[in-house]
Amino acid sequence: MGLFNELFSEDLVFLDFPCRDKYEFFEKISRLLLEKGFVKPSFQKALVEREEKYPTGLRTTPFHVAIPHTDPANIVRPFIAVIRPERAVEFNEMGMSDEKVEARFLFLLGLNRGEGQTELLSRLIHLFNNREAMERLIKENDRGNVIRLLKENIN
C-alpha cells in the first residue's frame, strides 16, 4: 500500500542538519519549507506553540525521535520532512512534559487533513521500534536510499 508515498521526497530529507536546539531547528526548517512552498508564514509560530502544549518526543529503541507537527491550517502541500540532526536535539517527551528525550531523528509532519493520520502515526511508531531499519537510517548518507528505506518500512 503506497498511501504515504507522495508525502516523502528527497528534497525534504536533511542529513546532519545543524541546529543547537529545537527552537533553532524550528526556525531553520520552517524557513526552508516556506521557501519550497510547503507551509504558510504562520507555520513556525504554530509549530512552536503546539510543541510547547503537546510535546512530541518519543522514547523509542534504538533511537529517540520526535514528530513535531501543527494544524492543517498552516500547511500548503502535505509532506513528511525527515531530519537527522548533526547531534541529538532535546525534546520534551510526549505525554510527560517534564521528561526529556534526546531525539536523533525528527520526522516533521505536514498533513493538511486528518484522514490517514492515525494509520500514518502507527506505521511511523512501528518503524521507530524497528532496530534494523533505524540502524540503517542512522548510518545512511544518500537521501534516495533514506526515501527507499522509509517507503519499504512505512507503506
UniProtKB/TrEMBL annotation:
Q: What's the EC number here?
A: 2.7.1.191
Residue ranges of the TM segments: none
| Top EC group | transferase
| Positions of the PTS EIIA type-2 domain | 6-153
Which of UniProt's keywords are assigned here? Transferase
Give one GO molecular function term: transferase activity
Q: What's this protein's name?
A: PTS system IIA component, Gat family
